[in-house]
Amino acid sequence: MTKSGKFINKWMKRTRMLFRLFMFKIGLDKRPVFAVLTVNAQCNFKCKYCFADYHKKVEKPLSTEQIFHIIDELDDYGVIYLNVHGGEALIRKDIGRIIDYGLGKKMFVNLITNGRFLKEKWDEVRNIDSMCISLDGREENNDKNRGEGTFKIATEAIDFALSKGATVRIGMTITHHTKDDLEWLAEWAKKRNIYIHHYLLFDQDNLSEDLRMTREENNEALRKLIELKKRGYPVFYSLRTLEYALNWPFEKLILRKNDLKDLNRPENFQFITCNYKTINVLVESNGTLRVCNATVRQGTHISILDKPLRKAKAELLDVDDCMYCYHLPKMEFSNLIDLRFEPVMNQFANQLKEDIKALFAKVKQG
Ligand code: SF4
Q: Domains in the chain, please, with CATH?
């Protein structure tokens, strides 16, 4: 495909997604638009905050045929955006075939990676629509979160992908070690003209104490992100999402139906309804569905290896009573689905900017 053809193709997919969000919002089409497909549980890093302890998991990965079958089912169900996740997805020998299979279904395919194998696997993944590479801050602080040498690996992978004209974002997890690196990383990303997705830690029972953030530290980080965004730094999430998290008045970060009974909700705080669990399908590496990765350590799960995905999703939504939460990426989704003006315009402007940049990089590359 030509460079401009790729650009047009991506925007056709984005337009389809926007149309489906509109249909979802007005209630005419409630099918999922997005999917997170966890293709393996193996990982070559040992990030201290890993919510699923992937580096400790011993699990037989799904076969290529099983993954293709899941993608077929996602496609039949109406999913347009496929987020390819791990473990570390690039460890899979068939990762190029998986990505091409999703692209062949006219899905928008995004890859989440730590970057370690990107260079050697580039020819296999070069057709990807976008990728997100994890990087948490300055070298000494990033490496406290993710392990020695991981800063070098991630920064080299980002620069390599950019040199190839890929659409790249940074995924930054904010921990006690990296909370003071927000401006530093924003500056680093701005120089490269790329956006950062910021993640706050989940409420995890496996989290080591040195990483934990107090609520005030989280709030300080959110205030800093709002300030950086207003100053024109490449913070991906909308102000509405960041402010919602900043104003979250509850001790618990996730509220289930039961939690609402005696909840003391301040009058001026309005919940954002979670649409994420409906509009997204999360498939785990062992072939189970969950509503969301924020609930990996506590929520319900249903296998799709022995029943149709649609049926499993409907059953899951019936039994999982997760209602509201504090998590930035999920709330960003919910704001988009609600077709809120500022989040939609923010998303549109960010994506247009990244795709035009990638187009020029590819043209320059020849
Ligand atoms: S409220 Fe929705 S987005 Fe938040 S943790 Fe629950 S399912 Fe996930």
A: 3-365 (3.20.20.70)
Tell how far the Cα of 336 is from the centroid of ligand 1, in angstroms: 15
Ligand 1 pocket residues where CB is under 6 Å: 254, 274, 276-277, 291-292, 294-295, 322-325, 327, 330
Per the DSSP assignment, residues forming a β-bridge with 340 are none
- Per the CB < 8 A criterion, the answer to whether 280 and 32 are in contact is yes
Atom in ligand 1 nearest the alpha carbon of residue 292? 8
Residues 252-267: tens digit of each pLDDT: 999 999 999 989 999 8
The owner of tokens 């053809």 is 5
84-135 confidence digits (pLDDT tens): 999 999 999 999 999 999 999 999 999 999 999 999 999 999 999 999 999 9
User: How many Å lie between the centroid of ligand 1 and the Cα of residue 188?
Assistant: 31
- Residues with Cβ within 8 Å of 275's Cβ and at least 6 positions away in sequence, in order, are 24, 333, 334, 337, 338
